[in-house]
Write a structure and sequence with these properties.
Blueprint (H helix, E strand, L loop, with lengths): L7 H25 L3 H20 L8 H34 L7 H31 L2 H10 L11 H17 L11 H21 L8 H42 L5 H35 L2 H10 L1
């Protein structure tokens, strides 16, 4: 049952303040700890703030939330570019640590090298975006706005109504892609389904305290679906980028050595990587289908609809 003790405005401001505080902390950590986990956590914090800002935009007056969102969007975009490369690099490193035949190492090592070189440039861009975010003073503006007296007018939408509407809307969006669950080649639709799952998960996380934690099981299954679809999408993106990567490496090899006699060793490793990615993509798709079948067998989504409608 949704608690009635918190007003809609109070709940919204509390959610915004919490997510802004976490985002600022993750940005500070990223400055001192440049690793994949720090990048991931900052990116997730920016997404969670964005989700809260979309829902509770009417809990603040003026344009400060819009200004903050513009900066956070740049943070999210720059972190996303680094995170995507980190995931691919970690996958390559796992292949190198496994009992992968040495004849494939040259290509895998070359790919890892290029990803590391690209990451250094991308990390510098993140620091520039962070500098601009901090210099803008938008965090202090947000804190002042969040500390102002709550509106005296009554919201036309209660907290209970907003929670039910938000969750139902995002659940409907997720279910609109159900027809593509058993179409492994419908990559674009499955990618959109992942985004819908992510948005549903974030809105449930926001309103979970208002339901006394009753949304936790639904958050867990939605996150698992999002993760499997996300890893499947990552694999598809990597596979799409490999022909261009190989062509660039062929050109670099010829320019540096004057011929391409050493290129077959690189190509062999990249083709091995492509085969491993194909297998991982198929594995994640099977995991996703199993998860979705579980939601059907347990009537997960109808139970969620019943819960939020109470």
């Amino acid at each position: 049952m949704v608690t009635r003790r918190l007003s809609y405005y109070h709940f919204g401001r509390k959610a915004l303040k919490k997510r802004l505080t976490i985002l600022v902390a993750e940005i500070a950590r990223l400055r001192t700890k440049n690793d994949p986990e720090a990048i991931h956590d900052m990116r997730v914090a920016s997404r969670r703030f964005h989700a809260a800002a979309q829902i509770f935009s009417d809990c603040l007056t003026g344009s400060v939330l819009t200004e903050c969102e513009q900066h956070v969007r740049r943070l999210r975009k720059s972190a996303g570019a680094v995170r995507d490369g980190d995931v691919q690099r970690l996958f390559v490193e796992r292949l190198l640590k496994k009992s992968t035949p040495r004849r494939y190492h040259q290509g895998l090592q070359r790919l890892a090298l290029r990803l590391s070189q690209r990451r250094k440039k991308q990390y510098k861009k993140i620091l520039n975006v962070i500098d601009n975010f901090e210099k803008s003073g938008v965090v202090e503006k947000m804190k002042r706005a969040l500390s102002l007296p709550l509106p005296t007018r009554r919201s036309t939408v209660t907290l209970r109504q907003r929670a039910a509407q938000g969750i139902a809307s995002h659940l409907s969006s997720l279910l609109s892609f159900e027809q593509y669950v058993h179409q492994s080649s419908a990559l674009d639709k499955l990618h959109q389904m992942r985004i819908a799952a992510k948005r549903l998960r974030y809105v449930m996380e926001i309103f979970n305290p208002a339901y006394g934690g009753a949304l936790k099981p639904y958050i867990r299954i939605t996150r698992a679906i999002q993760d499997s679809l996300g890893e499947m999408h990552d694999c598809a993106v990597w596979l799409e980028s490999l022909p261009s990567f190989l062509e660039k490496e062929r050109t670099r090899t010829e320019k540096f050595f004057g011929d391409t006699s050493s290129f077959p060793g690189i190509e062999r490793g990249i083709l091995y990587f492509a085969d491993a990615v194909q297998r991982e993509k198929a594995k994640q798709y099977r995991a996703f289908v199993r998860l979705w079948k579980h939601t059907e067998q347990t009537h997960t989504w109808s139970k969620l609809k019943t819960l939020v409608a109470k």
